Amino acid sequence: MPRPQYMKTCLKIVKQLCPLVTLMSTVFVIAITIYINEKVSPVFVFLCMQVYLNWYSVYSISCKSNPMKVKEIQNNLCSVITQQRKVEQINSMQLPTHNTTYKFWHCEKCQSYMCKPTQHCVFCKKCFHFKDHHCFFLGACILRQNMGNFILFCFYTSLTCLYSLCVLGPYMYENINHIVKSDADYFNIFLNFGFPIALARLLRSKDSSSILLVTIFDTLMSILCICLVFGIWKLHSCLTGKQRYVNVTGKQNLKEIFGSYGLSNIIFPYNGLVGTRDINGKYELKEV
After folding, report:
1. Closest CA to 29 of 188, 223, 253
2. Which residues form the signal peptide (predicted)?
3. Residue 232 burial by CB count (10 A; 0-12/13-18/19+): exposed, middle or buried?
4. Mean pLDDT over all residues of the chain?
5. Is-contact 287 66, C-beta < 8 A?
6. Is the pLDDT of residue 12 over 80?
7. What pLDDT is stored for residue 270 in this prediction?
8. CB 245: neighbour CB atoms within 10 A?
9. Start-end of H helices in 102-241
10. What's the pLDDT score for residue 179?
11. Nearest to 142 by CA among 30, 238, 1, 239
């Protein structure tokens, strides 16, 4: 098999497996947390629901987002549209404030003309406006339209991991207390139960249940730190204008990031499940 074809096959497998592995891992962590806690906490249920709802919102908006296509391209399409707009402005006694430039490009993958700026995603197999990146774990593209849901997904994932760690921590300490020496300091404990060493001991040790708990604990701690840092970084980038899209710059306010429902959208992702994102009185971003 040629190398390019081999890489495409591997990426296709990763694209299909990553969301499934993520879903199975979350279900496993939820089951372990409920089993150890011996009860179903309303707080934990709320956090889990927020994770899945925002995940679905990110995926749904990514699937529904369609670029502006040009069905018929003529040689003088730009000049014709510009002339029509000038005539309409003169008839309505409104002087043109600036010149409008219409640009198109032909996407060989989509086999159609697109209004710039767009970026083609080889994994989603379509073009997007205002694309940031493709998230393999969620199986969707992160766009300007669903950036707020993605940030909330990162934050709620961090809180869910924190809750599971608070439940798993005391239980793990009771089970590994006989393994850890009484005179061991924190550095030696970290060396013995850090993620790489814990995983190696899990494969070799007969007391696999204790090492499995340590491995889960280390994994949750890593996910907590990564999601929290990445979510804060994305939020800071949007608020300060460092979050850049193709031909789009500038700061965004909380309404533009999370939607037009205020703080209630943090509790329930209306923009991804019910309504349409409203920015400056226009219902554009979700369908662009």
Report:
1. 223
2. none
3. middle
4. 76
5. yes
6. no
7. 76
8. 16
9. 147-176, 186-193, 195-204, 208-240
10. 64
11. 238
**Nearest CA to 171 among 223, 220, 222, 224?**
220
Tokens of 151: 């940030």
8 Å CB contact between 229 and 238: no
| Beta carbons of 134 and 65 less than 8 angstroms apart | no
Q: What is the rounded CA–CA span in Å between residue 19 and residue 258?
A: 24
User: Which two three-digit tokens encode residue 129?
Assistant: 């406006």
Q: Name the DSSP class of 139.
A: T
**Residue ranges in the chain assigned as alpha helix (H):** 3-37, 42-64, 77-91, 147-176, 186-193, 195-204, 208-240, 254-258, 264-267, 270-273
Those residues whose C-beta lies under 8 Å from the C-beta of residue 257, and which sit 6 or more positions away, are: 147, 148, 151, 235, 238, 239
Whole-number Å distance between alpha carbons of 148 and 134:
15
User: How many of the other CB atoms lie within 10 Å of CB of 179?
Assistant: 16
Mean pLDDT of 137-157: 91
Sign of CA pseudo-dihedral 211, 212, 216, 219 = positive
Q: Per the structure block, which two tokens stand in for 213?
A: 């708990």
Under a CB-based contact definition with an 8 Å cutoff, are residues 117 and 246 in contact? yes
Cα 231 to Cα 225: distance, rounded to the nearest angstrom = 10
What letter would DSSP give residue 241? T
pLDDT band at 144 (very low <50, low <70, confident <90, very high): confident
